[in-house]
Amino acid sequence: MKKVSVGEDRNTRGAIKIAFNPMFTYYPEQNSISSSLLSSIVSGFTTRDSGDMRKIQTVKDFFKENEITPRKIVLLEQIHSINVSVPDTLHLGDVEILEESDGVITKEKGVAISVHTADCVPILFYDPVEYIIGASHQGWRGSVKN
After folding, report:
1. 52: burial class by Cβ within 10 Å (0-12, 13-18, 19+)?
2. 55-101: pLDDT as tens digits
3. 119: which of 53, 54, 56, 81 is 20 to 30 A away, CA to CA?
4. What's the rounded Cα separation, in Å, for the pair 83 and 142?
5. Cβ distance 103 to 84 under 8 Å?
6. Coiled-coil region(s) at which residues (predicted)?
7. Distance between CA atoms of 12 and 2, rounded to whole angstroms?
8. Residue 97's beta-bridge partner residues?
9. What integer pLDDT is reported at residue 109 of this predicted model?
10. How many CB atoms lie within 10 A of CB 101?
C-alpha cells in the first residue's frame, strides 16, 4: 500500500498535489480537485464552498472564474436511475440539461459534463482509443435497479 503524499507544486501556483504518483491536484483558490492522470482532459471535483453546482449560473460562473471555456455544458437531472444519456450536439444553446438521467457519455470535444454526489459515488470514464468520456452518479438506489 502506498502512502498519500501532500506537497507544494511550484508549477501550479500553490496547488497541492495529493498523490498516488500524483493522482490529484488540489487548487485551494478554486476549491477544486483535478485529476493529474489525464492531462488532455480537464476534470475536477468541487465542494459546497464553490456554490450549488446544480444551478446553471453557478456552473457558468465557476468555469469563467477558472478560465475554462467549454463549447457546451451538460448537466443531469439525477433521479437515482440506471439511465445514461448522450447529449444532443445539435442542441442550440450553451447548456443542456438531460432529464431523468444519472449518467452521460460523449465523444464531442469541448463539452463539459457534470454529476453531483453527496453519499453516492461519481464514476468517471475515459476511452483513450475512441476518445469517449463519461460520468455517472452511482448510488445504491440505481445499483439495485440493475
Report:
1. exposed
2. 889 989 888 887 888 888 898 889 898 899 988 665 656 888 888 99
3. 56
4. 9
5. yes
6. none
7. 24
8. 75
9. 85
10. 23
Q: Which residue has the cell 444519472?
A: 102
Query: What is the gyration radius of the CA atoms in the chain, in angstroms?
Result: 16
Q: What DSSP element (H or E) covers 47?
A: none
What are the structural domains, with CATH classification, of the chain?
A: 1-48 (no CATH), 51-146 (3.60.140.10)
Number of H helices, E strands in the chain: 2, 12
Residue 136 CA to residue 60 CA, distance in Å, equals 21
Q: Which residue has the cell 469517449?
A: 132
* Residue closest to 107 by CA, chosen among 82, 84, 78, 87: 87
Cβ contact 47:53 at 8 Å? no
Which residue carries 446553471 as its cell? 56
Q: Report CA-CA distances (Å) from 31 to 34, 65, 118.
A: 10, 11, 16
**HEC string for 53-100:** CCCHHHHHHHHHHCCCCCCEEEEECCCCCCCEECCCCCCCCCEEEECC
